[in-house]
Amino acid sequence: MHQSNKCVGRRIETTKAPTALGSYSQGTRSGRMLYTSGQIGLDPGTLKLVDGIEAQIRQSFANIEAICEAAGATLACITKLTVFLVERDDWAHVNRIMAELFIGAFPSRTAVGVVWLPLGAAVEIEAIAEIPADVTLPD
């Protein structure tokens, strides 16, 4: 049965993050809340996975930042992250990079160990952000 999209929020898209490789949106806005799809370390220009765990973490956050910016938000607006990692030993890299990217209060975070991620990625990160009140939202 085909379902209507009447309840789905506004789709957020940007060329500064990888295009969706399946039946999902880069991000969705509902009211002032932004929900990103999980981002792996794909370079948006080549759609190839960058090399190394640190590069993948940084690229995942760069992709999230681009989606946030397309919606009128920044990394500082993120209220919740979910981080999926294949290797437990890589959590220290995530913590260190997050300490560089988030100044002041950190977002809430759920950390999940997984067996597999798309395209052989080592990390996938999704975010929930609140779009600031001073940003005018399109209808």
TrEMBL record:
List the InterPro entries hit by this protein, alphabetically: RidA, RutC-like_sf, YjgF/YER057c/UK114
State the Pfam families in the record.
Ribonuc_L-PSP (PF01042)
Which family does the record assign? Answer: Belongs to the RutC family.
Record protein name field: Reactive intermediate/imine deaminase
Natural source organism: Caballeronia udeis
